Amino acid sequence: MGDKMKFEIEFVIQSSPQLLYQYISTPSGLSEWFADNVNSRGEKFIFIWDGAEETAKLLKRKSDEFVRFAWEENEDDGSFFEMRIIVDDITKDVSLFISDFAEEDEMDEAKMLWENQVGDLKQVLGSK
Question: What domains does the chain contain, in order, with CATH numbers?
Answer without folding.
Answer: 4-123 (3.30.530.20)
